[in-house]
Structure to design on (417 residues):
């Protein structure tokens, strides 16, 4: 029997508590689109859809010609499907994990380690750091998507230190003065920023809870009096405090940029970049790893010292954190999101309503295709619709016969070495 090179996948859902609930969740809608028999519970969060071969969420193969049950087993038996360059570079492993996220409440203040730190943390604390791999990641908005990402410009942080006395109290006069006096010297500013952030994150619990309660009370009073609370970042503060009362992470909004992405816009998070997703739905792609160092807005394991040591303390405006896509010169339907890491690239494929036959070019690597909207048939026997997920082996082209009148939108994750 000849080897099957393209096949549909059934992918794992993670029901983390921060996920959107029931059919409010894009993840749940895609699951139901991909399998109309799926049961979606109205009161259950549907946070992440994992499309890949990570051991914690290995996709199931939906093709009765294939005896292997999971994508990971298939790749282990047929490593050539990865393409020779990817197979050799990544030791026969699929190098990326593709996801959809539906965020209802904030995810933890976190960063992902580089390869060297990941290996060290995994060796020391495997129960908290399950992989020895780095985890750069990219989020592409499906709906309006909001997050915190990277340290704000120093001037903005100094402004909050002046306008939010409770924040100043946690950072302390000495560190705040150092930041103020280093604003024209980038190297000194980074060191001062590290000191400010570390002081705040290592504050005694009683101290920061008291300050947080005072700040929340003050913002509520200002709101009730009809005052503008933007100098305190009031709306976001109250929202995070309602989700995680008494959590030091609420103060991180004075250090980190708030970014709002519109559908199709992206942000890239390299190693050691502090971030937290706040709300919305996105497609996410990352190196195949589940390593996260957390320090707030979470009930999970917190490792403040590791986080404060590892972070990239280079301040930059919010606009610098958005990651642009570029049109593929060989295909007007494709926009490429190609980050500065070898592990993954994502393509957004928008097939216009006028196109009824569309051929996806062969790539010299394996890829995973997710259908967000539209319907088509492929390879005569595969029906694609919203929520369908397809594994495409290296060097395979796939021609779609588009049957929907509104065209199609798809995302394709791959590894273009």
């Amino acid at each position: 029997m000849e080897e099957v090179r393209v096949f549909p996948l059934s992918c794992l859902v993670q029901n983390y508590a921060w996920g959107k609930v029931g059919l409010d969740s894009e993840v749940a809608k895609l699951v139901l689109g991909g399998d109309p028999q799926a049961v979606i519970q109205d009161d259950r969060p549907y946070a992440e859809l994992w499309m890949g071969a990570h051991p914690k969420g290995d996709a199931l193969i939906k093709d009765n010609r294939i005896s292997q049950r999971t994508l990971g087993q298939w790749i282990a038996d047929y490593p050539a499907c990865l393409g020779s360059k990817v197979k050799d570079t990544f030791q026969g492993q699929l190098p990326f994990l593709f996801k959809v996220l539906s965020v209802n409440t904030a995810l933890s203040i976190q960063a992902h380690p580089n390869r060297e730190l990941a290996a060290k943390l995994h060796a020391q604390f495997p129960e908290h750091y399950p992989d020895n791999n780095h985890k750069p990641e990219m989020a592409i908005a499906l709906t309006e998507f909001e997050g915190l990402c990277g340290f704000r410009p120093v001037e903005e942080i100094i402004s909050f230190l002046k306008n939010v006395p409770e924040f100043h109290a946690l950072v302390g006069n000495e560190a705040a003065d150092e930041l103020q006096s280093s604003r024209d010297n980038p190297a000194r500013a980074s060191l001062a920023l590290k000191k400010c952030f570390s002081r705040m994150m290592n504050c005694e619990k009683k101290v920061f809870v008291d300050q947080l309660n005072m700040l929340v009370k003050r913002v509520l009073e200002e709101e009730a009096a009809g005052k503008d609370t933007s100098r305190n970042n009031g709306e976001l503060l109250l929202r995070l405090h309602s989700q995680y009362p008494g959590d030091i992470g609420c103060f991180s909004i004075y250090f980190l940029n708030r970014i709002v992405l519109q559908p199709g816009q992206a942000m890239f998070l390299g190693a050691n970049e502090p971030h937290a997703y706040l709300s919305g739905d996105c497609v996410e792609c990352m190196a195949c790893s589940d390593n996260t160092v957390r320090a707030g807005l979470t009930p999970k394991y917190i490792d403040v010292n590791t986080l404060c040591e590892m972070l990239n303390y280079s301040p930059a405006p919010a606009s610098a954190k958005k990651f642009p896509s570029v049109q593929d010169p060989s295909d007007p339907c494709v926009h490429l999101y190609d980050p500065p890491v070898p592990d993954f690239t994502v393509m957004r494929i928008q097939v216009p309503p006028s196109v009824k036959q569309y051929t996806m070019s062969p790539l010299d690597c394996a890829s995973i295709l997710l259908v967000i909207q539209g319907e088509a048939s492929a390879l005569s026997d595969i029906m694609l619709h919203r929520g369908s997920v397809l594994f495409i082996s290296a060097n395979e082209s796939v021609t779609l016969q588009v049957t929907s009148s509104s065209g199609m939108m798809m995302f394709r994750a791959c590894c273009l070495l």
Summary: The first strand starts at residue 6 and ends at 10.
